[in-house]
Prior knowledge:
alpha/beta; 16% helix; 7-stranded parallel β-sheet; 8 helices; 9-stranded mixed β-sheet
Amino acid sequence: MRKKEMIAMLLAGGQGSRLGVLTSKVAKPAVAFGGKYRIIDFPLSNCINSGIDTVGVLTQYQPLRLNTHIGIGIPWDLDRSFGGVSILPPYEKSGSSEWYTGTANAIYQNLDYMETFHPDYVLILSGDHIYKMDYEVMLEFHKANRADVTIAAMPVPMEEASRFGIVVADEEGQITEFQEKPPEPKSNLASMGIYIFSWPVLKEALIALRDIHGCDFGKHIIPYCHGKGDRLFAYEYNGYWKDVGTLGSYWEANMELIDIIPEFNLYEEFWKIYTNSATLPPQYISSESVIEKSIISNGCEIYGEVRNCVIGAGVTIGKGSIVRDSIIMQGVTIGNGCVIDKAIIAEGTEIGNECTLGIGSELPNKLKPSIYSFGLVTIGENSWIPNGIQIGKNTAISGVTVKEDYPNGLLESGETLIKAGEHA
């Protein structure tokens, strides 16, 4: 009987609604990061770097880009005849069609897939965090403690602990209690949503709780295992870990990559980040262009100034344009004579000549103040901005816009412009 010691199940079905227009057409794990990567590249690369060659990727929301990106897993060396990477969307069962309703429900619906490999252990991951972690070390910890469930947890500042699911553990690391976003936390160890289960324990819990709508690991499975006396341990992680769930944290994590000594290093030989990147010509930097402290991907043509930016593949920046503190995703064209400050511009967008983005004062966004903040200009993919337009801060634009959409050629700070058929 062929078997795998540990397989990974990667939850990649989330919309990531706090990223606003960036995820209106694409699942959060497929959003670009660091120029040439997508967010899902990080957990996938962690798997192969940790010696895990069987990964089920559970998709649901807008999966097309994700499916195309992962393909048969060649960039991650996950094209295996037994194991490898499998995309697991929800599918119609006899008598009913069922969407995944919660993280554990999604895993439960794929029991047959897991059963195929007769695993000893199952690693549960989410596809929307930026970090490097050797899951092999976590598995050794799990075995050494004869654990039924091991939860990766990281220390957070005590004053922030009430925002997280908190685990309370004794000196051996055995978990004594859980607190979900407690007003008065008893510890500062926050669950990272990364779990290793011994397979019989996971299977039993999933079947026992299968009728709970929206069955979730943090809310249901973990408390159930704890309640019936399973051995639960906290594995403390102290490396770099970033939840890029908001536009502000997404922007910050990208900007941290261009620090002189980045906290998160994309250039380490021994822990490579693999991706499915297009075969593109090298970048072209003209004689009049100026580039300072930026990541510039392949296939770019730069004729203007770029300072403190992360630029994706195949971007064109016109003559006399100045782009600062911004994330420009692949295939964006910026015309001549533009000034762009602190913007996130999604794939395939075209910006006309003489446009100014990020002007004026920081007023809160009127439509979605909690999403479009941090002083950013956010533009959804395949949008079009006509010549000579000015755009304020805390703004969002999506779609092919025309001059008439901008009173006096201006979108004021805090305004949102979403064309018909597009989503905010």
